[in-house]
Amino acid sequence: MSAVTEPMTHTDERAPLTVTARGVHVAYDGHEVLRGIDLTARPGRVVAVTGPSGAGKTTLLWVLAGLVRPDEGSVHVGDAPATDRDTTSGAGVVLIPQDNALASVL
Question: What pTM did the predictor assign?
């Protein structure tokens, strides 16, 4: 799995915050999915997470969005720990599904 960042224009009225993951480990039923992930997503940058099926991309996004708690490590939005979905969404961290069916023409 790899991550690539690109510049992006920020249009939200809130001050943008950095999302930081340090030493994140996640396992499901004893199967290690993420091991020692470090990631920093800075304001004004786009982060692309790539890798083969089963590499843990979705799990990483869920951890960053506060939907899954890491077994080890931490995630912060700004200076605040990202402990749950309310914390992250309140800080402006959202996930947009790839196949969200919002527009039938897409």
Answer: 0.73
Going by C-beta distance under 8 Å and a sequence separation of 6 or more, which residues neighbour residue 1?
49, 50, 51, 55, 56, 57, 60
Residue 47 pairs in a beta bridge with 5
| Sheet strands (E) in 1-106 | 2-7, 19-28, 31-41, 45-50, 72-77, 80-81
Neighbours of 91 (CB within 10 A): 19
Amino acid identity of residue 94, one-letter, is V
Q: Quick one: average pLDDT of 55-64? A: 91
What are the distances in angstroms from CA 57 to CA 6, 26, 54, 80? Answer: 18, 12, 8, 23
Contact 19, 82 (CB under 8 A): yes
Which is it for the CA torsion 74, 19, 102, 84, positive or negative? positive
